[in-house]
Design brief:
CATH topology: TIM Barrel
Strand content: 15-25%
CATH class: Alpha Beta
Helix content: 40-55%
Distance between the termini: 9 Å
Shape: globular
Number of helices: 9
Order of helices and strands: EHHEHEHEHEHEHEEEEHEH
Structural class: alpha/beta
């Protein structure tokens, strides 16, 4: 497997240093990552994307994915379709093969998640058809509580029913809804077009900085390999299912940012030798 890193993983470092996107690309390369992905750019323009791609081409660092927010359950979903098509243009300018978009953040009163998925599916399908024409696969991550449990994401993808729309499998996020990572990855693996790996510490009682998961446990992000996520087993499961794409580190811990990323990468390299 090849290991990449999300620009999101540098959040603490960016706040501290005010560094640019290009600085992050250089640093990712120096740390030993084989690719980088970006969350929604600021400024979010094709020109910004082209500058980043040009620099990454220059230093030999592939841009492997692009992630954006989206809410297809809003009152006027056509507006979301229009907005996300513009983000597809950004993804194409970055040269990425995969773009992740969210689907919704809350459920409407008296509407189940199944009915919400049914309502959103035609709009998600329209976006992925637009992306397909530009050589970009779209996907949704198990993320955001509403569509985070494995059976919900699977239902959504099956309902959209388009080979260009798949799953960004985040092996750690399943814990946020009380689902066990390995069992969940087994559900996600046949659909996976991109993978995030993160890790969490877990406690059954509240501790400072921890957040409450849906099952009543408390979680805190940590260095990959230092928490409770069975990372090695999850990656083995994905590999056995035929996944051969990039695995991106998403770091959300309180540890010192850059050493934490290096330690996580070293761990991943060791368990996949």
């Amino acid at each position: 497997m090849k290991f990449s890193v999300s620009s999101y993983s540098f959040s603490a470092y960016r706040r501290k240093t005010k560094c640019s996107y290009l600085d992050i690309c250089r640093l990712a390369k120096e740390l030993g990552f084989e690719g980088i992905e970006f969350t929604e750019l600021d400024p979010c323009t094709v020109d910004t994307a082209k500058r980043i791609k040009s620099y990454c081409d220059e230093i030999g660092l592939p841009i492997v994915a692009y992630s954006v927010g989206a809410n297809f359950a809003r009152l006027f979903p056509k507006r979301t379709v229009k907005q996300i098509k513009k983000q597809v243009d950004i993804a194409a300018a970055l040269g990425v093969p995969v773009m992740r978009h969210d689907v919704c953040y809350v459920l409407a009163p008296n509407r189940s998640w199944q009915k919400t998925a049914d309502k959103m599916a035609p709009y998600i399908r329209e976006v992925t058809e637009y992306a397909k024409a530009k050589g970009v696969k779209t996907c949704t991550e198990n993320h955001g509580f509403i569509f985070q449990a494995p059976e919900r994401v699977k239902y959504l993808i099956d309902t959209v029913n388009n080979e260009n729309y798949r799953w960004l499998c985040d092996v750690g996020n399943f814990l946020c809804v009380g689902a066990e990572p390995l069992a969940s990855v087994k559900v996600a693996a046949p659909y996976a077009v991109h993978v995030h790996v993160k890790d969490f510490l877990r406690s059954d009682v509240f501790k400072p900085n921890y957040f409450r998961a849906a099952d009543g446990n408390y979680l805190l992000g940590t260095i990959v390999g230092k928490g409770v996520v069975p990372v090695k087993d999850c990656l083995s499961c994905l590999k056995e299912a035929g996944y051969d794409g990039y695995v991106s580190v998403e770091f959300e811990g309180k540890e010192d940012n850059i050493p934490a990323l290096k330690a996580g990468l070293t761990f991943l390299q060791c368990i996949t030798e």
